[in-house]
Structure formats: C-alpha cells, structure tokens
C-alpha cells in the first residue's frame, strides 16, 4: 500500500518496480514447483487446482495450462 500511495512505481524507480514484479512472479513459480515436487496425492490435486486457475485467463489460459501440464492431464 505505501508504495502505491507514495508513487514508488513512477520514474526514476520504474525499473526497480518492474524487477520487483518479476521477482514476485519468479518466487511464486518456485513455490509452486517446490510444492508439486514430491508428487504425492496432495501435490497432484494442488497442481490440478492451481493450474486450472490459470485457465481462467481469456483466450490463452487453456493453452498455458496444457503447456504447464505437458499434455491434457497432470
């Protein structure tokens, strides 16, 4: 909230803001992969649920899910 209030995303800190967003997405991806790594029953259903959330993205969501799954099912 404070960063938005003070306008920390504006110049000259735009690059810092973009890099922070990239790091956030990368950490979320690493967390997902770490959770799915054991590939037990809970990991299987977590992977199914999380990747199906991605399918809500209009036009390209289903293609992204199939790419992440490596086929049509987990």
UniProtKB/TrEMBL annotation:
<feature type="domain" description="Cytochrome b/b6 N-terminal region profile">
    <location>
        <begin position="1"/>
        <end position="74"/>
    </location>
</feature>
<feature type="transmembrane region" description="Helical">
    <location>
        <begin position="15"/>
        <end position="37"/>
    </location>
</feature>
<dbReference type="GO" id="GO:0008121">
    <property type="term" value="F:quinol-cytochrome-c reductase activity"/>
</dbReference>
<dbReference type="InterPro" id="IPR016174">
    <property type="entry name" value="Di-haem_cyt_TM"/>
</dbReference>
<dbReference type="Pfam" id="PF00033">
    <property type="entry name" value="Cytochrome_B"/>
</dbReference>
<feature type="transmembrane region" description="Helical">
    <location>
        <begin position="44"/>
        <end position="61"/>
    </location>
</feature>
<dbReference type="GO" id="GO:0005739">
    <property type="term" value="C:mitochondrion"/>
</dbReference>
<keyword id="KW-1133">Transmembrane helix</keyword>
<protein>
    <submittedName>
        <fullName>Cytochrome b</fullName>
    </submittedName>
</protein>
<dbReference type="InterPro" id="IPR027387">
    <property type="entry name" value="Cytb/b6-like_sf"/>
</dbReference>
<dbReference type="GO" id="GO:0006122">
    <property type="term" value="P:mitochondrial electron transport, ubiquinol to cytochrome c"/>
</dbReference>
<dbReference type="GO" id="GO:0016491">
    <property type="term" value="F:oxidoreductase activity"/>
</dbReference>
<keyword id="KW-0472">Membrane</keyword>
<keyword id="KW-0812">Transmembrane</keyword>
<dbReference type="InterPro" id="IPR005797">
    <property type="entry name" value="Cyt_b/b6_N"/>
</dbReference>
<keyword id="KW-0496">Mitochondrion</keyword>
<dbReference type="GO" id="GO:0016020">
    <property type="term" value="C:membrane"/>
</dbReference>
């Amino acid at each position: 909230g404070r960063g938005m209030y003070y306008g920390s995303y504006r110049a000259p800190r735009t690059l810092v803001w973009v890099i922070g967003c990239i790091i956030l997405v990368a950490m979320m991806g690493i967390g997902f992969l770490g959770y799915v790594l054991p590939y037990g029953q809970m990991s299987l259903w977590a992977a199914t649920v999380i990747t199906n959330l991605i399918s809500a993205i209009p036009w390209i969501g289903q293609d992204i899910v199939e790419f992440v799954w490596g086929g049509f099912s987990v």
